[in-house]
């Protein structure tokens, strides 16, 4: 009998104890599943014409916003909310002509507490932001860049640029536009741009001899990524919206 008691004490003494886990620092606005959208996420097809950047893995779009008891009455996702147009800049370098284009888009969410604090980085595609009425929302658009060269002149470009690195110019997306596209029955909400504007970034083209395509780098030799200004909106009434974007590249010498 004594041996049996000792065995029970040993068993319960060694058994793992349950621990209550508390999520005290939960700053999320929405814990719901991704929205049921009717268009596919934007994906770049692998090709020698597309350079690899820091954020080409996935897109944030589409992103929707549910204000109060607003209902989704969209029959399909607006095109600018799921597949915005590319913006490009044409570059001439001797006998070589190529284009620099916007790549995968990602959306970041901010709050303002006397200074800008990033609330969410790279929102997942299909995410629904739930917010009460009259609450201010702030977003920023982030994009990588890719190089596009006509296959017919690619050998010429390679011979002329291989092993070289040169300054392309200062590039930004400060003139990009954002909109809150309302569903049927939702009131219109105006998006506004916050200041200060992000600084333009110097972009360099580097074509290593072993690469089939050139690489775009910043002045720190890191993959080139651009940030838009921070945009804000303050919905006053219940509604359902999609964030729609029109990225616009601008080049300065």
Describe this entry's structure for a reader.
The protein is mainly beta and 253 residues long. It contains three helices and 14 strands. The chain has helices spanning 2-14, 79-82, 154-161, and strands at residues 64-67, 88-93, 96-112, 116-120, 128-131, 137-148, 164-172, 177-182, 192-193, 201-207, 215-217, 225-233, 239-246, 250-252. Strands 2, 3, 4, 6, 9 and 12 form a six-stranded antiparallel beta sheet that branches. A four-stranded mixed beta sheet has the order 5-1-13-8. The chain is elongated and about 60 Å long. Mean pLDDT is 80; it is low at 1-56.
Outline the secondary-structure elements.
Layout: H1 2-14, E1 64-67, H2 79-82, E2 88-93, E3 96-112, E4 116-120, E5 128-131, E6 137-148, H3 154-161, E7 164-172, E8 177-182, E9 192-193, E10 201-207, E11 215-217, E12 225-233, E13 239-246, E14 250-252
């Amino acid at each position: 009998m004594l041996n049996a008691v000792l065995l029970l004490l040993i068993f319960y003494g060694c058994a793992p104890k349950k621990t209550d886990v508390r999520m005290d620092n939960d700053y999320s606005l929405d814990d719901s599943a991704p929205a049921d959208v009717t268009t596919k996420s934007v994906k770049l097809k692998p090709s020698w014409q597309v350079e690899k950047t820091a954020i080409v893995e996935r897109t944030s779009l589409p992103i929707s916003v549910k204000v109060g008891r607003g209902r989704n009455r969209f029959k399909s996702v607006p095109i600018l909310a799921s597949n915005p147009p590319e913006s490009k800049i044409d570059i001439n370098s001797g006998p070589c002509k190529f284009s620099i284009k916007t790549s995968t888009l990602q959306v970041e969410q901010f709050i303002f507490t006397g200074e800008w604090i990033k609330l969410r980085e790279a929102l997942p595609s299909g995410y629904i932001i739930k917010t009460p009425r009259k609450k201010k929302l702030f977003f920023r658009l982030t994009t990588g860049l890719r190089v596009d060269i006509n296959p017919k002149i690619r050998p010429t470009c390679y011979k002329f640029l291989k092993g070289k690195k040169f300054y392309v110019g200062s590039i930004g997306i400060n003139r990009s536009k954002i909109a809150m596209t309302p569903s049927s029955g939702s009131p219109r909400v105006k998006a506004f741009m916050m200041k200060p504007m992000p600084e333009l970034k110097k972009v360099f083209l580097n074509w290593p001899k072993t690469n089939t395509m050139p690489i775009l780098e910043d002045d720190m030799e890191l993959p080139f990524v651009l940030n838009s200004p921070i945009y804000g909106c303050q919905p006053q009434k219940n509604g359902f919206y999609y964030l729609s974007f029109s990225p616009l590249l601008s080049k300065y010498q």
